[in-house]
Amino acid sequence: MPKSRKTIDPAAEAMLDKAAEMGIATAFDRADQMKPCPIGSKGLCCKNCAMGPCRLAKEGQVGICGATIETVVARNLARAIAAGAAAHSDHGRDMAFVLHGAATGEAPGYRIRDEFKLREVARDLGIDTDGRTKEEIAIEVAEKALAEFGRQSGQLSYLSRAPRKRQEIWKELNIAPRGIDREIVEILHRTVVGNDQDAEHILDQGMRAALGDGWGGSMLATDLSDILFGTPSPLVTQVNLGVLKDDEVNIIIHGHEPTLSEMIVAAARDPEMIEYAKSKGANGITLAGICCTSNETLMRQGVPSAGNFLHQELAVLTGAVEAMVVDVQCIFQGLQDVTENFHTKLITTSPKAMISGAIHMQFDEHHAPEIAREIVKTAVDNYPNRGATYIPQVHENMVPGFSHEYIRYMLGGYYRGSLRPLNDAIMSGRLRGVAGVVGCNNPRVVQDEAHSHIVREFLKNDVLVVQTGCGALCSAKYGLLQGEALEYAGPGLREICETVGIPPILHMGSCVDNSRILTVLAEMATEGGLGDDISDIPGVGIAPEWMSEKALTIGTYFVASGAYVLFGVRSPIEGSEAVTDLIGRRWEEKTGGKLEFEPDPAKIVQKSLDHIDKKRAALGLPKYDASRFGQSGDRRYNAWLRAQAEGAKVSPYSMAGVTVKEA
Ligand code: XCC
Ligand code: SF4
User: Fold this and answer.
1) How far is the CA of 470 from the centre of ligand 1 (A)?
2) Residues 508 and 401 sit within 8 Å (Cβ to Cβ)
3) Which residue, 32, 97, 346, 630, is the most exposed by fewest CB within 10 angstroms?
4) What is the per-residue pLDDT across 281-312, written as a single tens digit (0 to 9) for each?
């Protein structure tokens, strides 16, 4: 059968064949049928008032109000940034409520798991910790966190975590965010008809709101989740549809928030519940995640992942899913139609997200364990209704769990944890640079193709890769989040990874955990040797298959923090050369970072490497030379790699019988 060219994932391929056989439509088919609107896709459609909508399809055209193409394109981008910031930051707010409940005892089932982190966060929020219980501190941390959302003046507390020089740039540009909510509201205000009509001024506010998310709402979401559920450290788990089990109750948790899903993990592991599943004829209960609920639970609990964004409907198509439990964000309404063809129950749980036709079992942190048990029981009760199943036997091992705390620890140990060895490796040229490869799947492009091309090229070129979100799950599916991936790494990168004992790609968490990458960049900049600001670091940020507004927000806060960010797929601002120039050349003048849209993955790689080399040169570092490192001492390992490539399945430590050929 010819490849469909919709995905490079064999599990997805198999499920798409099954969908076609059964006549069930998925997002892949809908993308074929729905051509993107040629005007809207370039940012040229304004529907901000009832004099329009105005479609500015011709050069020089203006709206009824006189708005120019430049203004309309900038307003549309700013509104997308506001929406993305709202989503991630509102998630952070809910974490603060749960932490508060955990500390007061009003949210039974939750507790403070990482007291060390609690104290660290308290310090950064200016809270006194001396002689106080962890509950007392947690209550004040939660209150202070909630106050950050409504702060009317001044600036967010966490901005002080950024390099000093960066903080000054924000102040100078007047984009240091005040309250998280305030900056989002101000974008909506500025973009109503007849208000802010200067593209650069509008998008300055875009940066401000995005920074409020990155260094505010998202960073709080990460920190408070770590306090409540534990700061991640590496563990082994599995990914892809093959993690579902033919003889067990399968429950999928999908969306973004760890609050309910953590309780579902506990309920599904409860021996009584497992006994109950056995009474229904199942051999046990399997829990698997999708999207960022998956990233949250796999990083901390080792819950396997059924896959990334475009796997959601495919998981249901296995016929083996008793319940698809969803919370917020990235949930296809199309799931409802797909589940109707099977026994699968679609269960919505957030007071913020309902789907017509689905069962709604609303989450409430005050009764979380009971609600989670009820949900798991509903799934178990559904097991006898299962019909024929088809689970593709495709899965891979992965090692996620690289919080910035863990990275610091693994590089320097418990007493002298620091990023020094990372900076040194870049300075010596063993590492050419670093890249964050993050973001979604998008059915407008072949699933996972751009992601995996780009990360493999980076590995080959000695670029250390950090990942979050669906991008991380993509690499995991192809076995790249484990030591074996070193076979793709260049000699310098391999040397570093072997010395430290890490895979060449570090999975740092969910999409709100992009804030962990900000923290790493800030620490690299202050550690010394790589300049004194994030914009000096030889690094890039990429979202090869983005689709969500949240991705635009993330990209924007990285740019405003000094990074070069490239997005794949297509440009939502294509309609305006002026705005394209503004977020590229002009933003680079202002922030040292720039945002570009580049659909060709090969060009993304080339531009990234050029940028990394340019930053190396600016720092006066030696020119990257691929042949300089990795030749000493590991002949045995090289021989093993060659044997692997030829199909031999032997461990590098049992190479006695293999002839060591000089490369
Ligand atoms: Fe959603 Fe976070 Fe994108 Fe994946 S990566 S499709 S936003 S789940 Ni955030
Ligand atoms: Fe048209 Fe202006 Fe109204 Fe937009 S705000 S719809 S450009 S009249």
Assistant:
1) 6
2) no
3) 32
4) 999 999 999 999 999 999 999 999 999 999 99
